[in-house]
Amino acid sequence: MNWEAVGAIGELAGGVIVVASLIFVGYQLRQTSMIERAKAQRDLLLQARAWIAMPSRDKERFDAIRTCLQDYDSADDWDREQFSSWAFDVLLLLESALYTRKEGFVHDGSFERFEQLVLSIIRTPGGGHWWANAYNVIGTDVGEHVKGRLDELGETVMPWTKLLPQFEIED
Protein backbone atom coordinates (compact mmCIF):
# COMPACT_ATOMS: atom_id res chain seq x y z
CA MET A 1 0.00 0.00 0.00
CA ASN A 2 1.38 3.39 -0.94
CA TRP A 3 1.05 6.74 0.76
CA GLU A 4 -1.62 7.93 -1.67
CA ALA A 5 -3.87 5.03 -0.71
CA VAL A 6 -3.28 5.69 2.98
CA GLY A 7 -4.13 9.36 2.40
CA ALA A 8 -7.32 8.46 0.52
CA ILE A 9 -8.38 6.11 3.32
CA GLY A 10 -7.68 8.87 5.84
CA GLU A 11 -9.76 11.35 3.87
CA LEU A 12 -12.60 8.84 3.58
CA ALA A 13 -12.48 8.11 7.31
CA GLY A 14 -12.42 11.85 8.04
CA GLY A 15 -15.49 12.38 5.84
CA VAL A 16 -17.36 9.56 7.58
CA ILE A 17 -16.49 11.02 10.97
CA VAL A 18 -17.72 14.49 9.92
CA VAL A 19 -21.02 13.06 8.64
CA ALA A 20 -21.45 10.98 11.82
CA SER A 21 -20.73 14.08 13.93
CA LEU A 22 -23.33 16.12 12.04
CA ILE A 23 -25.92 13.38 12.50
CA PHE A 24 -25.14 13.28 16.22
CA VAL A 25 -25.39 17.08 16.54
CA GLY A 26 -28.73 17.00 14.70
CA TYR A 27 -29.98 14.32 17.08
CA GLN A 28 -28.87 16.33 20.09
CA LEU A 29 -30.56 19.49 18.75
CA ARG A 30 -33.78 17.54 18.30
CA GLN A 31 -33.56 16.22 21.86
CA THR A 32 -32.87 19.71 23.21
CA SER A 33 -35.87 21.07 21.33
CA MET A 34 -38.10 18.34 22.78
CA ILE A 35 -36.82 19.08 26.29
CA GLU A 36 -37.45 22.80 25.85
CA ARG A 37 -40.96 22.11 24.59
CA ALA A 38 -41.67 19.94 27.62
CA LYS A 39 -40.30 22.64 29.95
CA ALA A 40 -42.44 25.35 28.34
CA GLN A 41 -45.52 23.15 28.53
CA ARG A 42 -44.84 22.23 32.16
CA ASP A 43 -44.22 25.85 33.14
CA LEU A 44 -47.51 26.99 31.62
CA LEU A 45 -49.40 24.16 33.28
CA LEU A 46 -47.88 24.97 36.68
CA GLN A 47 -48.90 28.60 36.26
CA ALA A 48 -52.39 27.50 35.21
CA ARG A 49 -52.67 25.28 38.28
CA ALA A 50 -51.77 28.19 40.54
CA TRP A 51 -54.25 30.45 38.73
CA ILE A 52 -57.07 27.92 39.00
CA ALA A 53 -56.43 27.51 42.73
CA MET A 54 -56.49 31.26 43.46
CA PRO A 55 -60.22 31.60 44.16
CA SER A 56 -60.28 28.52 46.40
CA ARG A 57 -57.52 29.84 48.65
CA ASP A 58 -59.17 33.12 49.55
CA LYS A 59 -62.91 33.55 50.09
CA GLU A 60 -62.67 37.32 49.66
CA ARG A 61 -61.09 36.85 46.24
CA PHE A 62 -63.64 34.18 45.30
CA ASP A 63 -66.50 36.53 46.24
CA ALA A 64 -64.90 39.41 44.32
CA ILE A 65 -64.47 37.26 41.20
CA ARG A 66 -67.99 35.92 41.51
CA THR A 67 -69.44 39.41 41.91
CA CYS A 68 -67.46 40.89 39.03
CA LEU A 69 -68.32 38.06 36.66
CA GLN A 70 -71.96 39.07 37.11
CA ASP A 71 -71.69 42.86 37.30
CA TYR A 72 -68.24 44.39 37.02
CA ASP A 73 -69.40 47.99 36.96
CA SER A 74 -71.35 47.91 40.23
CA ALA A 75 -68.55 46.16 42.18
CA ASP A 76 -66.40 48.28 44.46
CA ASP A 77 -62.85 49.21 43.48
CA TRP A 78 -61.25 46.50 45.65
CA ASP A 79 -63.40 43.74 44.13
CA ARG A 80 -62.68 45.00 40.61
CA GLU A 81 -58.97 45.01 41.41
CA GLN A 82 -59.14 41.42 42.72
CA PHE A 83 -61.04 40.34 39.62
CA SER A 84 -58.76 42.24 37.24
CA SER A 85 -55.68 40.67 38.77
CA TRP A 86 -57.19 37.19 38.37
CA ALA A 87 -58.39 37.83 34.81
CA PHE A 88 -55.15 39.49 33.69
CA ASP A 89 -53.18 36.54 35.07
CA VAL A 90 -54.99 34.12 32.76
CA LEU A 91 -54.85 36.58 29.87
CA LEU A 92 -51.07 36.77 30.28
CA LEU A 93 -50.94 32.96 30.38
CA LEU A 94 -52.76 32.95 27.06
CA GLU A 95 -50.32 35.50 25.67
CA SER A 96 -47.39 33.34 26.75
CA ALA A 97 -49.06 30.26 25.25
CA LEU A 98 -49.72 32.17 22.02
CA TYR A 99 -46.04 33.04 21.57
CA THR A 100 -44.66 29.68 22.67
CA ARG A 101 -47.16 27.91 20.41
CA LYS A 102 -45.80 29.86 17.43
CA GLU A 103 -42.37 28.46 18.31
CA GLY A 104 -43.79 24.94 18.58
CA PHE A 105 -43.30 24.68 22.35
CA VAL A 106 -46.96 24.33 23.40
CA HIS A 107 -49.36 21.64 22.28
CA ASP A 108 -52.45 22.79 20.40
CA GLY A 109 -54.75 21.17 22.95
CA SER A 110 -53.24 23.11 25.83
CA PHE A 111 -53.33 26.33 23.85
CA GLU A 112 -57.01 25.83 23.04
CA ARG A 113 -57.82 25.40 26.74
CA PHE A 114 -55.97 28.58 27.71
CA GLU A 115 -57.92 30.34 24.99
CA GLN A 116 -61.18 28.82 26.28
CA LEU A 117 -60.50 30.10 29.80
CA VAL A 118 -60.08 33.67 28.61
CA LEU A 119 -62.99 33.61 26.18
CA SER A 120 -65.35 32.11 28.75
CA ILE A 121 -64.50 34.84 31.28
CA ILE A 122 -65.09 37.54 28.67
CA ARG A 123 -68.45 35.96 27.75
CA THR A 124 -69.85 36.69 31.22
CA PRO A 125 -71.63 40.04 31.69
CA GLY A 126 -68.93 41.38 34.00
CA GLY A 127 -66.08 39.80 32.05
CA GLY A 128 -67.28 41.60 28.92
CA HIS A 129 -67.11 44.95 30.71
CA TRP A 130 -63.65 44.13 32.05
CA TRP A 131 -62.51 43.12 28.54
CA ALA A 132 -63.60 46.46 27.08
CA ASN A 133 -60.94 48.10 29.28
CA ALA A 134 -58.38 45.28 29.27
CA TYR A 135 -58.25 45.22 25.47
CA ASN A 136 -56.68 48.69 25.49
CA VAL A 137 -53.98 47.68 27.98
CA ILE A 138 -52.67 44.35 26.73
CA GLY A 139 -50.35 43.50 23.86
CA THR A 140 -51.88 43.94 20.43
CA ASP A 141 -51.05 40.37 19.34
CA VAL A 142 -53.06 38.72 22.10
CA GLY A 143 -55.73 41.43 22.01
CA GLU A 144 -56.34 40.94 18.31
CA HIS A 145 -56.24 37.18 18.69
CA VAL A 146 -58.87 37.19 21.45
CA LYS A 147 -61.03 39.73 19.61
CA GLY A 148 -60.85 37.66 16.43
CA ARG A 149 -61.77 34.46 18.25
CA LEU A 150 -64.67 36.18 20.00
CA ASP A 151 -65.93 37.46 16.65
CA GLU A 152 -65.49 34.02 15.12
CA LEU A 153 -67.02 31.94 17.91
CA GLY A 154 -69.50 34.42 19.38
CA GLU A 155 -72.30 32.89 21.39
CA THR A 156 -70.89 29.36 21.06
CA VAL A 157 -68.37 30.14 23.81
CA MET A 158 -69.87 29.04 27.11
CA PRO A 159 -69.57 31.70 29.85
CA TRP A 160 -67.35 30.94 32.83
CA THR A 161 -70.35 30.87 35.16
CA LYS A 162 -71.88 28.06 33.09
CA LEU A 163 -68.63 26.09 32.95
CA LEU A 164 -68.21 26.41 36.72
CA PRO A 165 -71.64 27.06 38.25
CA GLN A 166 -70.21 27.81 41.70
CA PHE A 167 -69.24 31.20 40.27
CA GLU A 168 -72.82 32.04 39.33
CA ILE A 169 -74.84 34.13 41.76
CA GLU A 170 -78.36 32.83 41.96
CA ASP A 171 -81.12 35.41 42.21
Secondary-structure content class: mainly alpha
Taken from the alpha-carbon principal axes, the silhouette is: elongated
| Radius of gyration from the alpha-carbon trace, in angstroms | 25 Å
Average of the residue pLDDT scores: 87
Number of helices: 7
Proportion of residues in β-strands: under 5%
Report how far the terminal alpha carbons are from each other.
Answer: 98 Å
Q: What portion of residues is helical?
A: over 70%
Number of strands: 0
Elements, N to C (H/E) = HHHHHHH
Biggest β-sheet strands, sense, barrel: none
Identify low-pLDDT runs.
Answer: none
Q: What can you tell me about this protein's structure?
A:
The model has no long low-confidence stretch (mean pLDDT 87). This protein is mostly helical and 171 residues long. The chain is elongated and about 100 Å long. It has helices at 3-57, 59-71, 77-102, 108-122, 125-134, 140-153, 160-163. Helix 3 (77-102) runs antiparallel to helix 4 (108-122). It has seven helices and no strands.
Give me the secondary-structure topology.
Elements: H1 3-57, H2 59-71, H3 77-102, H4 108-122, H5 125-134, H6 140-153, H7 160-163
Kindly summarize this structure in a few lines.
With 171 residues, the chain is mainly α. 80% of the residues lie in helices and 0% in strands.
Brief descriptors of the model:
single chain; 171 residues; mainly alpha; 7 helices; elongated
